[in-house]
Hints:
Blueprint: H1 3-34, E1 53-57, E2 61-63, E3 67-73, E4 78-83, E5 88-89, E6 91-95, E7 99-103, E8 111-117, E9 122-132, E10 136-140, E11 144-146, E12 150-156, E13 161-166, E14 169-172, E15 182-186, E16 196-197, E17 199-204, E18 208-209, E19 216-219, E20 233-236, E21 246-247, E22 253-256, E23 270-274, E24 285-289, E25 293-294, E26 301-308, E27 316-322, E28 325-329, E29 352-357, E30 378-386, E31 395-406, E32 410-416, E33 426-427, E34 430-433, E35 447-451, E36 459-470, E37 477-484, E38 493-498, E39 501-506, E40 520-525, E41 532-535, E42 546-555, E43 564-575
Parallel strand pairs: 2-9, 10-18, 11-19
Antiparallel strand pairs: 1-3, 3-7, 4-5, 4-8, 6-7, 8-9, 10-12, 12-15, 13-14, 13-17, 16-19, 20-31, 21-24, 22-23, 23-31, 24-30, 25-30, 26-29, 26-31, 27-28, 27-30, 32-43, 33-36, 34-35, 35-43, 36-42, 37-40, 37-43, 38-39, 38-42, 39-41
Amino acid sequence: MNQENKKHMKKMHFNNSKLFTLICTILGFSMLIGCEKQDIFGENYDIDFPVPAVSAVSSKSALIGSTIILTGTNLDKVTSVKVGAENAEGKIVEKTSTSLKLQLPRIFSKGAFTVSNVYKQATTSSVTIDPIFPDVEITNYPTVIDRGQVFLIGGSNVDLIQEVMIGETKVRLDPTSQTEKQGIVNTQGVILSGDQTVIKVSKAYGKVINGISGAIAVQNYDPNAVYVAEQPIVIWDFEDGKNPFVNADILPISGINVSKLPKLRDQNYLTVKTDKADGWNKAIGFLTSTNPINLSKFHDPHLTFWINTNGSQGYFQLELQMGGVKSGGHFTPASSSSETDNYNFEKTNGWELRSISLKNFNWENWGSGKLKFNPQGIIESIALGYKQGNGKGFFELNIDQVQITDGPIKPVFTAFNFENNVNPYSGSAKSGINLSNIPSVSGERYLTVKVDNALSWNWTGDIYAGGPINLVNLKNPYISFWVNTNGKSGFFQIETTQNETKWGAGIDDANYLIKTNGWKRMNFSLKALGWGNWGGTSKALDMKGVLDYIKIGFSTGNASGVNYEVNIDDIVISDGAMY
């Protein structure tokens, strides 16, 4: 290569190097710009965002929980109003640019108003407000206190109580578990040495009326004692026909009765299905309820629901807020009532029951701390977050009867549900499947037994379900069923044998007659039923023994000269009541 060509090559190399350096500089500068921290909306901008300000209040003092009017400027974009020295949150009712109607919180101290808006602009007013507290009146004290357990006090404005004295011990009340009519007092750590004690409301907002109880019995807590379960609190039963499901990252098919399955209860259930589910990567959607759930009278709160995957699989995770802490968790063999649940609900056998202890659930920290579940507290919100989880393939999940129940729902022996369309009745009365032509309550079918112009105490016939029915592992054995007398008169009796002794009981030994104008779930503790010896030498029915069978005898009882009718469904022996 000659000298001239070498110079030319060097020049080209030099020019290319400068071009390469320039490109790298531009790219580096671009990357630097691209990696700069993005400003949060309303911060570090030259834009003059409107600043809200309160200049006047309609009253210098007001009753807690009442509404007041704030006047000022730029109030139409306000999203939060905090009241008093402790910054208690008020509720915005209405707002314009110059006026804001505010519902005051139940508890706040004298102080100013701090308003903030969507642009993250906030100011504190120079005007202040004084709270007016109503009287606190106690109308109900407990008759007995179990050592180490909680008890309730009732009345009006009970949420204003801060502290009570049990004997000589001060106990602060948890504000998250109080309502206007009811307060929960926890005796854990309180030494109750005598057989009696006295409760005194020692600190409250406002004047206290009837703040000292009479003498109250004190006893040791018996964890094995049988309690009477509270009625369940229904979160979703979908009977309003509205679809509450909210989509997330994908657009599933969702709606009421979309899968056209045999119904579980009443008329409606919710369907969610999709072929776009992607493990843990994409959220399918949510069911959310923000209606407060007061557990103050519950003994053992459980989340109970029924699911049906219709031959596929599905999943959701549980999220719950209590005491301002939002936490969540998953359904696994350790936390669910089904050992097959492992971050996924596998293919179900029709409708399947889940009944989950909220007290023993494995709550995780999902951003605001790990929840310490209070079994007598208030659930502020509950959500089911739909994801595929560990599942694979087509996603389908049908759900119904989402409830908080007092204790687990544990069916042990299903005597009859009549879904096989076979009439098991043997006797002289008119009988048949769906003979009354009333809407069913559970599934599609029920049994009807009726007699026109009935004579009293006529055993018309019966239905028989053979055992054995082993009660040995049942803590609280129940018999339950759905009953509808269709506005007429009804009655029936229960029969079984054990150890060659026949036992019988009526479902209402006070009146020997029942009457309903719709379906009613009836639950009877086998221990509390008035069993009579109908033949044999045993002195009592053994509640840890084995029942040979269950027979429902359609006796007319005290129904005389009237039309007798009983529609019955879902006859079940269970550990605890069924709902």
